[in-house]
Structure formats: structure tokens, C-alpha cells
Amino acid sequence: MQTDKRRQLRDAFGAFMTGVTVVTSRDKAGQPIGFTANSFTSVSLDPALLLVSIDKRSANFANFTECSHFAVNILAEQQKETSNIFASKVEDRFALVAWHGSENGTPLLDGSSAWFDCALHQVVDAGDHALLIGRVEGFDSQATAGLGYYRGAYFTPYQNAETLINRLRVEVSALIECNGHAIMVQNAGAASLPSRHVTDGSVSDTLNALIAELGVNATPGFVYSIYEDRQSNKQHIVFLCALPTDATRAALKQGEWLDLEKISALSIKDSALKSLMNRFVRENSVGNYSIYYGDEINGSIKQFAS
């Protein structure tokens, strides 16, 4: 393909929003190696398989295609520098980051949003790249927001949410789900999401304080809904918050865990919130979420990239 066409194709591929990962392993001398990749996807749950692609021009191509194990580290939104380190020709990349070995000895990067420790299951030739298919032998998720990549630039879903807020009257809500249950607050017979008004400090400070009040080990994820109530001159920001992989429904300081299947039967006076929760129940069942922009009556729903 001609050089200009290759660039145009690369730009077209870049229209698809992805996460950012660092793929790690050890070379034949036992030294840690790694590279940045956004060509990562899950393949199968049973058996647990994933894949990532590697350029045949990579200096570590032979090491990764012949290794016994490799790991995929999904970077958190604070790890832009880590992504840049592993995307550039740095003498000793691992001296610049904190990491530890898995049970298989595979390097795992500290602070990652999630990691998957894999046995090399299959190598598939794919043009100027090869596909590394890994069989997942261990994994963990810290439920922190991941680092995004779109059209050649990084984006951070949670931190960038600050730019959406006009600072009139802002109410922040936390939507937290665990094993088919969500945290709701019931007051005078009416149910609502745990919420807090932004007064002093930032939206992120307010959300973190709200989560602390609930007494749950959740972390801010991404904006699930942002809408203005024109009658009350208030802006509502609902964050979908995440829990660690092994989380259970622990006792709460405030609110209670309610079965999602019973959400529709709750008395929710705010019609916009009732619509939001019904949408969440549907989307949670398939694990594919969207974001709502608008007001309390009309708006649009945009699907996230899968």
C-alpha cells in the first residue's frame, strides 16, 4: 500500500476509541520486556482468551512470539507517562516504572487499572503484524478509570468530565453496582441515587467524599448521564463507579443494596432518574453502556465504543 494510503488507513482506524495497554514478558535471558499497544481485545470467556497484536518490525518480536507467558496491563488514566515510556526507545524502561512479578514471573505494572497474566496459547500471522492469543491464568482489576486513546491522542474519561460542567448548581450522583444490586437511598418512601451538591472543591472531590460517606470501596469511572433540570436551574452529573473484581456487597454507612430486578417497582419521583435507572438495568444485563446528554425531558444517548 502507498505511504499516503497507509497513513489515511491509520487515521481511519484511529476513529475507533480504545484503551491503552502495556504488554510485558521476559526475554530469553530472563530480563523484563514490554511495549505499548492499543490493539487489545477479549476473545473468549470459556476458555478465557484474549489477544493483542505486535508489529513484526518490533525488536522484541521473536521474544514475544516464542515466550511461554506474557501479561497485558491496562493502564490507568494517570499512566500517560508509562505509555510513553514503553512506546519509545528507552534504554531500561522498567527502571522508570514500579512493577512486580506475577506467580509466573511475568512483569506486572503497579497502578494499572487491570492486568491479565497469560500463557501463550497461539500465534497467528496477520500481515505486517502477528496476533498473540493468550490463555488467561490470572487477572485482577482495581476498578480505576482507564487511559483512553482516540485519533492519536490520550483522553481520560473521568478527569475530562470536569470540562463538561458549567458550575451553576451541580449535583453529583454515584451509580454503583455489585452482583446485580445497586446502591439506592430511600427517604420518605422515595428512592434516589446517593447524591451530593458541589459546594467547595471540585466535582471529583465531591464524588470522592460521597463514596467515602457510603463506606464502599468504589472508584470513579465515567460519566453515565449529564442533564440539566431547567426548572430548578440545576445540573445533574451521574458517574458510573466501579468496584474491584473480587468485591462483595459489604455493609454500607448510608443507603442500601437493592436488587436491579426490583428497581422498576421502586417509587422514584424524579422521572429523569427513573428513566436513567431503567436504562441502566437494560445495559447492565449486556455489559454495554451509553451516556445521556440533555435536560430532564429531552436528550440524546450516545453509545460508547465497545
What is the name of the CATH topology of the largest domain? Pnp Oxidase, Chain A
- What is the correct CATH architecture of the largest domain? Roll
Structurally, the number of domains stands at 2
Helices and strands: which structural class? alpha+beta
Helix percent reads 10-25%
Radius of gyration of CA atoms, rounded to a whole number: 22 Å
Beta-strand percentage? 35-45%
Count of DSSP strands: 21
What do the pLDDT scores average to? 86
State the order of secondary-structure elements, H for helix, E for strand.
HEEEEEHEHEEEEEEEEEEHEEEHEE
Assign an overall shape: elongated
Q: CATH homologous superfamily of the largest domain, by name?
A: Electron Transport, Fmn-binding Protein, Chain A
Largest sheet: 9 strands, mixed
Count of individual helical segments: 5
CATH class of the largest domain: Mainly Beta
Distance between the termini: 28 Å
Sequence stretches where pLDDT stays below 50 over 5 or more residues = none
